[in-house]
């Protein structure tokens, strides 16, 4: 299947409604990918919508102004910032926009950890570790095994101790759940982002 050329949509967007919505959908897709969500399903799951519903938005379908606003809020883009966006070529704004998206999510995770740890400054979560938490929670929007988390996502050695070191706190906080909590040593054990874990990733207030 030929890749859709967004430049043609842009040239027609002023006069053609369908082309206009395709431009908006392409812009949303660009934000989603650069924000660290590799698939529409990953973002949809975290944002609380079905894959088909969200995929329709990226394809310029069923996209209302309110829906567009709500999607931008998921990327920490407020209404007052819209005029600074380049819908035609998102790459013009990408460095600032993506930094703001990623940093807002990192700050949110760090703040929640401080609250849970009762502001115990002996446990200081840095930005790199917070980003790793985010990566794991996004990756585990569907159940993943220890092997998948450690080798496919983090490119680390596949061991119980390594998982405990990088994801143990996520489990303790209730952000990452076991598919078989009654048998933690189940060789088929998998891990999935909980509802509270998804809420940590949401930037909508």
SSE diagram, text form:
Elements: H1 6-12, H2 17-34, H3 40-47, H4 51-58, H5 65-74, H6 94-116, H7 127-139, E1 144-145, H8 146-153, H9 160-172, E2 176-178, E3 190-193, H10 195-201
Helix pairs in contact: 1-2, 3-4, 6-7
Protein name: Transcriptional regulator, contains XRE-family HTH domain
Domain HTH cro/C1-type: 28-82
GO molecular function: DNA binding
Q: Can you describe this structure in just a few lines?
A:
It contains ten helices and three strands. The chain has 205 residues and is mainly α.
| Binned strand content | under 5%
Distance between the termini: 39 Å
| pLDDT averaged over residues | 87
Continuous helix count: 10
List keywords for this structure.
205 residues; mainly alpha; 434 Repressor (Amino-terminal Domain); Arc Repressor Mutant, subunit A; 2 domains; three-stranded antiparallel sheet; 4% strand; globular
């Amino acid at each position: 299947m030929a890749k859709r050329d967004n430049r043609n949509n842009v040239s027609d967007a002023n006069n053609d409604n369908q082309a206009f919505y395709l431009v908006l959908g392409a812009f949303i897709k660009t934000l989603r990918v650069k924000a660290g969500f590799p698939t529409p399903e990953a973002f949809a799951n975290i944002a609380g919508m079905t894959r088909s519903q969200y995929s329709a938005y990226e394809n310029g379908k069923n996209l209302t102004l309110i829906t567009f606003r709500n999607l931008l809020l998921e990327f920490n883009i407020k209404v007052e910032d819209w005029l600074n966006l380049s819908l035609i070529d998102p790459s013009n704004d990408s460095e600032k926009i993506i930094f703001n998206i990623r940093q807002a999510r990192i700050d949110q995770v760090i703040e929640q950890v401080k609250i849970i740890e009762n502001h115990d400054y002996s446990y200081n979560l840095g930005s790199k570790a917070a980003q790793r938490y985010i990566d794991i929670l996004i990756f585990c929007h569907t159940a993943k095994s220890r092997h998948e988390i450690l080798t496919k996502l983090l490119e680390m050695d596949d061991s119980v101790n390594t998982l405990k070191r990088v994801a143990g706190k996520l489990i303790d906080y209730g952000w990452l759940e076991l598919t078989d909590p009654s048998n933690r040593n189940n060789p088929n054990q998998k891990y999935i982002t909980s509802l509270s874990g998804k809420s940590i990733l949401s930037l909508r207030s």
